[in-house]
Amino acid sequence: KVISMLKEKGTSIVSVDSDGNIEPLLGEYMQSGINEIYPMEPAAGMDMVKTKKKYGRAFAFKGGIDKMALLKSKNDILRELEYKLGSDMRDGGTAFGLDHRIPNGVSIENYRFYVNTAREILGLPPYQQAKNPSWKRMAL
Fold first, then answer.
1. How far apart are alpha carbons 115 and 48 in whole angstroms?
2. Which pick of 55, 103, 121, 132 has the fewest CB atoms within 10 Å?
3. What is the C-alpha separation between 73 and 135, in angstroms, rounded?
């Protein structure tokens, strides 16, 4: 009832932030009007690529890139990005990013590799740090 009322008032995105494997609930989420899922946690068995193939554009996604890949080798990071940022995932409805915060122990080298490689795969220009930033940030 709440989602119906929100949609009647003009709400277009109804998001669920849920850790864990919520695959068994997705059909009910879709029927209830939920249309965005975050973080699509790979460690719990969630796979946004498979979910998108199954449900099409019924859901938008945020996150989905396994944060733990950043603790591994550059080849592991590349494999994760190539899978999650593949062309079939770039037709809209996906805000790419890590499934949670950057884990402790991720080297700046691996993080920069992640950012630069993701930008390259997505056809974005290389990251350029602002001159004299008041704060430092690095993201896609």
1. 19
2. 132
3. 29
